[in-house]
Design brief:
Length: 306
């Protein structure tokens, strides 16, 4: 029986406008199209894990608006359990307003909304379902103090804590590192955490992060693959070659694949391959949750790729 995956984090709706070019201050511009795309790093990872067959529960907040209902429906349609998602009628759901031009340049305004109100009542819901066999997925789009408390609760009972330090904060608290079983920054986030560029320094960066207290470090390097440093071994998993069209949620897809493989007691090397394949496949479709991959497609892809 696989271990449960609990995602504690953000739930957003992306409001995306396609425009010929980005507007200047004070300018009104006609666009081509508009779409609403469910997102938020927490919700993306939950959808990714559920579509890969993981028993997945989401804990977070949406607003008491139409967006909140749409976000819950998207999670439920993917097979995510949402009974512990709070509906906060005092505030809007989290949104990202995105303008994308013909050169794929963008302007993004993020309004945390209900995500910014995640609090102790949500931590109590987390405590009610966490066990020592749970895998807890965390990100940094809800208040940092709450993330820290969630990691502490999970660490105390022996659950596996996987933290994606995105978006990287100005100051990452040193006391958080020892609570993390697996830390999964990309190259930019890793550089912010260690204070030096990652190019040719991946091994050194992983060592610094382990010295700060995190157990296993996975640095996601995009087209270069991903580097893993555990207490026992260090290895690189090359990236899979695909026709990428949109990398927006590749990191979330990676974490989803990693978590599902670990929930099935696969080795860290195999989990890294699942993460890399899930991330790669997500780049072949546009959008965040819409790009998360079904398990049958992942398994077929892995059979074709030695």
């Amino acid at each position: 029986m696989s271990r449960s995956i609990i995602v504690f984090g953000s739930i957003n709706l992306d409001l995306v406008a396609q425009v010929p070019r980005l507007p200047r201050p004070g300018e009104t511009l006609s666009g081509y199209s508009f779409s609403t795309v469910p997102g938020g790093k927490g919700a993306n990872q939950a959808v990714g894990a559920a579509k890969l067959g993981g028993t997945t529960q989401m804990i977070g907040r949406v607003g008491g608006d139409a967006f909140g209902a749409e976000l819950l429906e998207s999670l439920q349609n993917a097979g995510v359990q949402t009974d512990l998602v709070s509906v906060d009628r005092s505030i809007s759901s989290g949104v990202a307003m995105i303008a994308v031009d013909n050169q794929s340049e963008n302007h993004i305004i993020v309004i945390p909304g209900a995500n910014g109100n995640v609090d102790k009542t949500n931590l109590e819901k987390l405590q009610s379902v966490l066990t020592d066999s749970s895998i807890l997925l965390l990100q940094l789009e809800i208040p940092l103090a709450i993330v820290e408390s969630a990691a502490a609760i999970a660490h105390q009972i022996g659950a596996t804590v996987i933290l994606d330090p995105a978006p990287a904060p100005e100051a990452f608290p040193d006391r958080l590192y020892p609570l993390i079983d697996i830390l999964t920054p990309n190259a930019i986030e890793a550089a912010q955490l260690v204070g030096f560029p990652i190019e040719n320094n991946v091994d050194r960066a992983a060592t610094v992060l382990q010295q700060k207290g995190a157990n296993t470090i996975i640095i996601k390097l995009g087209a270069q693959g991903a580097f893993c440093a555990t207490k026992q071994e260090r290895f690189m998993v090359p990236a899979f070659s695909v026709n990428a069209i949109d990398t927006v949620a590749a990191g979330d897809a990676f974490n989803a694949g990693l978590a599902v493989a670990l929930s099935e007691e696969r080795s860290m090397r195999e989990a890294m391959i699942w993460g890399a394949a899930s991330g790669a496949l997500s780049t072949t479709k546009s959008g965040a949750q819409t790009s998360m991959v079904d398990r049958s497609i992942l398994e077929q892809f892995l059979k074709q790729k030695p």
